[in-house]
Amino acid sequence: MYFSTFMVIVAVCIVIYGYFEYQKWVKRHELAEKLMQNKEMVEMFEENQKFLKKYPDFEKKRKIIKKLMKED
């Protein structure tokens, strides 16, 4: 009796967890769609990609600068 009750509770928890994960995924997907519809955001993203292609070592230097700023 106790084991079956425990298993039902575990199953309900798994379903609830799955539901919340699904809701999080839906929100992320909707946000991505909204950003893709925003022309300015798409242009900024493309400009950023061009910049990173032009200066490939920028990310390394940026990480070093952030690390140094955190130490202060």
Kindly report how far apart the N and C termini lie.
Answer: 60 Å
Question: What is the overall number of helices?
Answer: 3
Net shape: elongated
Main pleated-sheet profile: none
| Overall number of strands | 0
Please identify the structural class as seen in this structure: mainly alpha
Please report which band the strand proportion falls in: under 5%, 5-15%, 15-25%, 25-35%, 35-45% or over 45%: under 5%
Number of domains: 2
Nearest-angstrom radius of gyration? Answer: 22 Å
Overall residue-averaged pLDDT value: 89
Poorly predicted regions: none
Return the string of H and E elements.
HHH
Helix fraction bin? over 70%
Keywords:
2 domains, 92% helix
What does the model show?
The structure is a single chain. The chain has 72 residues and is mostly helical. The protein folds into two domains: 1-37; 39-72, no CATH class. Helices cover 92% and strands 0% of the residues. The protein has helices at 2-37, 39-54, 58-71. The chain is elongated, with a radius of gyration of 22 Å. It starts with a helix and ends with a helix. The model has no long low-confidence stretch (mean pLDDT 89).
Describe the structure concisely:
By secondary structure, the chain is mainly alpha-helical.
Layout of helices and strands:
Layout: H1 2-37, H2 39-54, H3 58-71
